[in-house]
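The instructor's notes for this session suggest beginning with a concrete chain rather than abstract definitions. Hand out the sequence below and ask the class to guess, before any prediction is shown, which regions might be ordered.
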Amino acid sequence: MDDFQKLSIFELSIRKNLISPYEYILLPVYIFLFFVATRILVELIYKDQTIQKYVYFGLSLKVFGGLFVTLIFNFYYKGGDIGTYYNEGRIFANLIFEHPESILRIFFYSPTGNDTELKNLFLHMNYVNAPDTLIVLKITAFINLFSFNSYLVTTFFFSFISFWCIWRLVTLLFELYPDHKQTIVIAFFAAPSLIVWGSGILKDTICFSCLCISHYYLFRIFIQNKFKLSYVFYILFTGYIILTIKIYILLAYAPCFSFMVTQQYKTYIQNRILRAMIAPFIIVLSLVVSYVLVTQLGAQKERYSSGKLLETAKVQRNYVHSVSLQTEGSTYDLGDMDDGLMAYILKIPAAINVSLFRPYLWESRNPIMLLSAIESSILIFITFRLFQKRKLKNTIDVLAKDVNLQFFLLFGLIFSFFVGVTTYNFGSLVRYKIQGYPFYIAAILLLYTLQENTTASKLKIKKIFSKSNPSLENRI
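After discussion, reveal the predicted structure:
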């Protein structure tokens, strides 16, 4: 095989405009063809026109969000992370086109490997020497093989594939809550943060898509007791991607899902007294399993091990905070924190609050931050409305009977704490939080609408009985 040629400075640099003129013609062609194919498949699979509309609605939002954030990064930020991922992914794709016989060598390249030739070739690339960014480059390169190296078409592919990954989980939730499809679609597709930051060529898009696939198949196996070998493959594949890119997602997810599984098996015990007696053992078992899972996951990367987790959080927090101050970014501060575990526990309410409900409107410093503040304000209103209109006892009763809602709420809150206590920058926070954000929204909306339907049903029954027998009206 001929030696690889050195990459030119032109290829290694981020051009002011990565979008070539031909892409403005190519993109509409791809969108038209894929939407036509989607319509044909959707009409074959789903006879319910409401579900068909949800597919078109969610897919349109994803495509719009991906193209919107790409254009913003291209023309306003002159490339940014998205531009770098695309540009260096394009280099990988070009190498494959030029040396198709070396496709496996290129795709399985590792900065810790012994391939000196490729190491020298990639020496000046920004993202190729870290595993979490390298895997994004490889995914981008693979997609580039089918997009004619088009920046916009590659973005469209990211949005399109991400939609179907999320839709996989959404269809499962349709089975669990058949009367609340609209609520589910709003939670997982209509949140502005997810539309924008979960649709472009970004780590966040890949991780959230993989998280939805992983949860779907884990739910099938451990909650619904449906096992297939292919399910295990999907779990391992998507789990590996998340583990490589953002292991802390799994550190938050693992204990929540283990709690969900133990709660589910507790419901199989029919005797209430026995179930109450065994509850403490279930909780202890859940904590033990969670500890083992988190410890094993943390061992995969030294800085996320149990002994260095707090130190890593401190380093991450201080770095982001200092960069934000230097660049006059939109920073926030949760107050003084030492290195002890208790300091982090005391910051749980503030960290969750900043992730879900901030920035406040008066903290907005630019148009992008204002949009985020409006979104946060809407979520504050929805959360407040839940506790204002629904009695706390009724809400707890609904939550206690639904292990899925318990998982959604627990994961949404724990992940919000993780990112809130380590980010210290609103601009970064709005991206990082999207892994747990839709789950929290889904939990709050379902807790509200489930009680609304229950109340409406009771009123309807009450009216029917009162008409036939007024004496029964007060018994219902």
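Then share the key points. Confidence is low (pLDDT under 50) at residues 456-476. The CA atoms of residues 72 and 78 lie 9 Å apart.
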